[in-house]
Amino acid sequence: MQSSSYRAFLGLVVICPLIAPVALAGVGDFTNQLSPSYRGQPGARYDGYDVFTSAALLPNFADLPGSCAATLLLQTDPSAILTSTGNIYSFASATTIEISLPAEDVVATALLQVKTAASPIDTSSVTLLGTSGNGQPVAISASVVTQLDSIGDEHAFEWDAAALDGIDLHGATVRFSASAPSCSLDVVLLDFQTDREPLETDVDALSLAGGGKQALDLDAGSDRAASIYLVLGSATGTTPGLVLDGVTVPLALDAYTLLMANGGSPGIHATTIGVLDPCGRGSASVTVPAGTDGSLSGLVLHHAFITIQPSIFGVDFASNATPLALGS
User: Fold this and answer.
1) Which CATH number is 44-194's, of 3.30.60, 2.60.120, 1.25.40, 2.40.260?
2) Predicted local confidence at residue 188, as pLDDT
3) pLDDT tens-place string over residues 231-289
């Protein structure tokens, strides 16, 4: 049964202003593109390039709807030009493309899709650049290469978890080249799944005497863009879990849970409610004021967040729980 405070909360959140969701739309002339199962989910990243603004030496930014990965695409041949339709083209030599991924993202799986015209890309040149376990640079070829159309203009390159196991892919780079001059780069789509959890924190312990703040980094995936989020907590652990609208939140229901659901307290408190951005991400924090009661030393709080869809008037997602140990 839903508590009265929970029902009241749902009655309030539907009036909060929403950010219009960004759809992960396809590209009209990329007719056979793939959509990986993880796109739009927590930890997933997607960027799409259609109209390029720099032919060479300066980075291009993803321009397709739903792009949230913050990658940069650079073409290295200085003789390349931009066509009237925003393609990258070179008469003189085979172009080389490098896509830089953010340093904070560790790639677990990846899918690159490329559409060209005239000369095709060299499928053997497509690599993901990272660092091996002993610190040496390594170039990893795609696990699966798929020609998506009958004439060879559209290709997909997939790196699975087995191929990337043991490779440091912080700030990885995707690199590929044309097979010959006169390659017109039309569309590039890049999906990758990171190893991050839906809820991550910067610290896992705070001093009661000195106080401090634990930052919470929320990632519910772009499929939940513009959803309302609520951070909940428990002072008694993560089991058996709290079931809301059929979704299990990994927190034990106690007085701290109800306190946070009703806006927190003057003591230990959190920023509890907000709206996820167009990429399905958000931020919150838990604050321990300096001089908080020392009798709480040794207590471990846990926090998790839920997302609420006003259209269904209910909870549709719960994150993992993260700990916060209170010390003297």
Assistant:
1) 2.60.120
2) 98
3) 999 999 999 999 999 999 999 999 999 888 876 667 888 888 999 999 999 999 999 99
* pTM (predicted TM-score): 0.87
CATH architecture, range 4-19+197-327:
Sandwich (2.60)
Which residue ranges does the chain devote to CATH 2.60.120?
A: 44-194
Spell out the SS3 assignment of the chain: CCCHHHHHHHHHHCCCCCCCCCCCCCCCCCCCCCCCCCCCCCCEEEEEECCCCCCCCCCEECCCCCCCCCCEEEECCCCCEECCCCCEECCCCCCEEEEECCCCCEEEEEEEEEEEEECCECHHHCEEEEECCCCCEEEEECCEEEECCCCCCEEEEEECHHHHCCCEEEEEEEEEEECCCCEEEEEEEEEEEECCCCEEECCCEEECCCCEEEEEEEECCHHHCCCEEEEEEECCCCCCCEEECCEEECCCCCHHHHHHHCCCCCCCEECCEEECCCCCEEEEEEEECCCCCHHHCCCEEEEEEEEEECCCCEEEEECCCEEEEEEC
